[in-house]
Amino acid sequence: MWIENLPNGKFKYTERYKDSLNKTRKVSITLDKNTARAKNEAQRILFDKINQKSNEYITTNKTFWEVKNEWLTVANKTLKSATVRSKVTAFKLLKNYIPEDIKISALNKIFIRNTLEDIYYNRNLSYAYMQIVKSSLSSIFEFAINKGYIKINPSKNISIQKKKQTIEERNRKNEKYLERDELKEVISLANAINKRLGMLIEFLALTGLRQGEAVALQIKNIKNDKIEVVGTYERYDHEKVSPKNTSSERIISLPKRAIKILQEIISQNIKEGRTDNNPDNYIFVTNSGLPLSYSAIDKVLKQIHYKKNLSTHVFRHTHIALLTELGIPLKAIMDRVGHSNPTTTLSIYSHVTQKLSDQVIEKLNTVEL
After folding, report:
1. Which of 147, 262, 290, 361 is deepest in the core (most CB within 10 A)?
2. Mean pLDDT of 312-337
3. Contact (Cβ atoms closer than 8 angstroms) between residue 112 and residue 154
4. pTM for the full model?
């Protein structure tokens, strides 16, 4: 990129690039200033111009949905079933926005932004789900780039602002985890319905494991007072697969109660003929020796009819809250629960630390000097 001083006192920023025919071309932009900030802005604008012009030479006749079907054939062979299912669900929603016959090269950033904004602001779907839709679109565009159908991914660098949080939504944060007395109450209620599932729930709260990680545990994964988390149980394919991400592979030290739960479950499995001592056997199993299904656990949680919405993830968040109350550093908590992104950990951590700070003030107010 080079800069020219114009007679009117402004500055012309110019950049060369090669088009699809390997011809050298130029794009330029005129700005009022020649500062570091202006240079950065000029580079961004010129980059967008180059991408837009490069895309003008695309002549593919492939529609978006034809490319999606091509992507799906590959995705079914390379991605986890749960990942494919979440994206397929997103595509069903996108049927309301993307016409059947539209060329993939005709979809631009403005169209994509308007689609995502309508999903989030007007349809009032969650921010997280809107992000899944965006990720699904990006998967198709990146696939199309690799196939040579398009030059750029129009969903890149689109940022959708979050809506203002309502009081109800803010209060809902309290339902992300259970207080200690609430946890005891829920475990007691679960035990009354199904003791084995009650012990699993307690184990989740004591270890912070994801549900799939817990039911994927095999006897060989127990290493004295530790467990190695090396996989998760895929609910659709009914098999143990690699964990969610590289951060999810970890070794966790167990408190005494968690060790006792494992010993008791394994002993029951052998005594009742579910499994034997084979190291490959799963631990949290049904009467037939298969890993407990997600639906069986959800069924018990629904039967509890608790004042807070219960899911297996609540117990994972409860574990984070317990560690925070014990003064464990944030990074150590993230390593223990296998979080690569601190967002979720921080949301629990910040809420609990704020509550603890309030308790400090309450106690200080009782001090008379």
Report:
1. 262
2. 91
3. yes
4. 0.68
